[in-house]
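Sanity check

After download, print the first record. It should look like this:
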Amino acid sequence: MICDLVVFQITCSYLHKSLEFVSVCGPTYDPLPPFQWSKSDYEKDVPHAGHPDLWTFQPIVHKWNS
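Expected structure tokens:
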């Protein structure tokens, strides 16, 4: 299984003025099905305590403190 990890961060002039940016993390899953520990070959052999079973992360808006 090939697993890609993507961390994507973007901002624009509107968000930049308020010290904000948008990020999305995790393996990509469109058009592929999202990664799921319980359906993977790695479930029993790779430690993953605290990880979500289904990796479908939503975008998050971050705001830096000035």
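If your output differs, re-run the checksum step. Summary of this record's structure: The chain has one domain: 6-63.
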